[in-house]
Amino acid sequence: MRQHYPHNITLKVKSNVAVAGTSLSGFCTGALLGAGASLYFTGTECTKVVYTSSSSGSTRYPRESYSASNIVRSIISLDWSGISSVASFQFPLPDQLPSSMNHTDGNGSYCKIDYQLKLQLGGREIVE
Length: 128
Description:
Number of strands: 10
Radius of gyration: 20 Å
Order of helices and strands: EEEEEEEEEE
Helix content: under 10%
């Protein structure tokens, strides 16, 4: 998977599939990369449940419950080659990492788990 960003910055992951207990690897290239660049691996779980409740009598009220939590947020070390505009990375994924998923029930409820690589340059995040 390859993404091009402003200022000719590229973030490439060597595989489109990442499995818990294996390694995620790739590289970043770009003229603006340097000591101020940080790479993060993040995972989030989001759930929304839509339901109805009733008070005394038969009046039904629509309700929603929402939850979001971070599964993982790790800083990935960037290995600078002799060329200042290329950095490689290799990151071991935790053994118990849940699989990515996205489920909706058609009534507005959903549950999803997703992961992202985020390259931060001088405080500005770039998402893969």
